[in-house]
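Design a sequence for this backbone.
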């Protein structure tokens, strides 16, 4: 069997440390992945992760920060083999632009609602033009698959919930507490409707 050179990923994200660790853990464990350049405002360490720092003064304004992130990606993105956009607003768009300019494949991790992206051309075009998409569940997979002519895979986050017996499930009623940004794309009213 022929040895392959490990690939270098450009990972564009604004995820929290906890969520980012969940996405990067499986990527770091793949022998095919040799390095991950992380374009993010805060440092993050990992076995194969190289943080591309953004200047402190860029953090004073979100729009300035995003422009700096894009410039860094355009300047250094040619070193990478694949662009991975963790699809939160501009991050998927930046991955798509860098992929077009550097002629690299783009993987979009669609963690927002597929329909929300579809209604916005700035987000829909990068999502639909991706070489591959990863989604968080079956509903998103079905929505994207219906519109794309290529495979869409579900991302399984690497954590497991402890198994419980049927008696344990029935013995307690739960209160729901959600601490988050109540943005339209997060679809909290829909989530509460489903849970009820």
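Sequence:
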């Amino acid at each position: 069997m022929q040895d392959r050179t490990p690939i270098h990923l450009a990972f564009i994200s604004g995820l929290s440390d906890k969520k980012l660790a969940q996405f990067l853990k499986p990527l770091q464990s793949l022998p095919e992945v040799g390095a991950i350049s992380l374009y993010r405002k805060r440092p993050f360490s990992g076995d194969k992760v190289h943080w591309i720092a953004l200047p402190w003064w860029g953090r004073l304004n979100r729009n300035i920060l995003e422009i700096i992130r894009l410039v860094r990606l355009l300047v250094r993105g040619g070193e990478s083999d694949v662009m991975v956009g963790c699809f939160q607003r501009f991050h998927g768009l930046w991955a798509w632009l860098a992929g077009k300019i550097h002629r690299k494949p783009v993987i979009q991790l669609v963690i927002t609602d597929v329909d929300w992206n579809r209604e916005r051309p700035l987000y829909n075009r990068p999502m639909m033009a991706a070489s591959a998409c990863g989604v968080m569940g079956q509903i998103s997979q079905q929505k994207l698959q219906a519109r794309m002519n290529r495979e869409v895979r579900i991302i399984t986050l690497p954590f497991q919930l402890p198994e419980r017996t049927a008696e344990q499930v029935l013995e307690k009623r739960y209160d729901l507490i959600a601490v988050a940004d109540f943005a339209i794309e997060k679809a909290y009213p829909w989530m509460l409707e489903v849970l009820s």
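The radius of gyration is 18 Å.
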